[in-house]
Structures are given as structure tokens and as C-alpha cells.
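Q: Given only this backbone (180 positions), what sequence would you predict?
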């Protein structure tokens, strides 16, 4: 699921991703140094650090939950358990969301919007949601969608834009904004 990959990347920036990915415990237990006393001190220090990271991660995940979900998971004390529960619960959302989003994308027409900015905003909103469902819309698809849904009275503008051979959707939008 692309959303969970993004969250893992975010957690990696804070050194917290290992807790969700079953890596930390093995590292902490293998951090043996010299004699037994030093090894025990190193283990205790690693355990404290791990405990602090788990608490920080749990707080971070719960902070970003909706109020109802936060209440439901109030008594959950283990970040890995919370993470797995949330993934199991919401993994099917992509299956549910994908068909209506594709329908929305297929019905999207440039001519239905008063301004280029309104159209562009809707394109990005739909694409962002499709990316959540692991569907990527390419630059070429965005360009074709825009060209093919111009109003019939804008055929000349459409032909001019095709002659410019835009390879980036953002360049086409900039040109349309200037023409507006």
C-alpha cells in the first residue's frame, strides 16, 4: 500500500521505522560489548532507547488518528500491534476507492470547468487519490486527457497546443493559464 510506504519513509527520517519492521529487537540483543558487566549496561541502555522510541512512535501514530479511532485504540500500548491493526482495517480501502476514482478520472473534462485553475486542481486531487490506490497517471495521460476534453469551440487552441508538443502537463497548464 503506497500510503504505508510513505509513512515508513517518514518514520525512517526519525529513526523509528525499525520498530514497525521487526528489526530493533534483534539489533538490541546483539549489541554485546566486551565483558558481562559492559554487555549488561549496553543491553539496558539499548532497552531504554528502544522503549523511548516505541513510546514516541505510539504517540506519533495516535496523534494522526481520527478522534474516533484514537478513542478506539486508546489502550493499545504497542506500536507494531497498532500499525498491523490499522493496516488490516484500512488495506481494503484501496479496493473500495479505486473504481469510483477511475470513473471520476474517465468523466473528467476540461470543458466542464470555468477556469484552468479549477480543472488543474481537480486533476491533481483525483491523481493524488489514485496514487493512494497505487495507480499512476503519467504525464502523457494527463496531456491526452486535457487535449481530448477541450470544448469544441477551442479547436484552434487545441491544435496550437498540440503543435507546441508539450511533454509536461505543468507546461501545458502554464500555457493555458496565460491564454486564459
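A: Predicted residues:
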Amino acid at each position: 500500500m503506497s500510503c504505508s510506504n510513505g509513512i515508513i519513509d517518514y518514520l525512517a527520517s526519525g529513526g523509528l521505522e525499525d520498530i514497525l519492521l521487526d528489526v530493533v529487537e534483534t539489533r538490541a540483543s546483539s549489541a554485546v560489548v566486551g565483558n558481562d558487566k559492559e554487555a549488561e549496561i549496553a543491553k539496558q541502555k539499548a532497552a531504554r532507547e528502544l522503549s523511548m522510541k516505541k513510546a514516541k512512535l505510539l504517540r506519533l501514530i495516535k496523534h494522526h488518528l481520527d478522534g474516533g479511532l484514537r478513542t478506539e485504540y486508546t489502550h493499545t500500548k504497542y506500536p507494531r500491534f497498532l500499525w498491523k491493526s490499522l493496516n488490516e482495517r484500512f488495506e481494503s480501502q484501496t479496493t473500495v476507492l479505486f473504481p469510483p476514482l477511475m470513473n471520476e478520472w474517465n468523466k473528467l473534462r476540461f470543458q466542464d470547468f470555468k477556469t484552468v485553475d479549477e480543472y488543474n486542481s481537480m486533476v491533481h486531487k483525483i491523481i493524488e487519490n489514485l496514487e493512494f490506490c497505487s495507480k499512476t497517471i503519467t504525464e502523457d495521460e494527463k496531456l491526452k486527457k486535457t487535449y481530448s476534453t477541450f470544448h469544441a469551440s477551442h479547436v484552434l487552441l487545441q491544435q496550437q497546443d498540440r503543435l507546441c508538443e508539450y511533454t509536461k502537463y505543468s507546461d501545458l497548464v502554464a500555457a493555458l493559464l496565460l491564454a486564459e
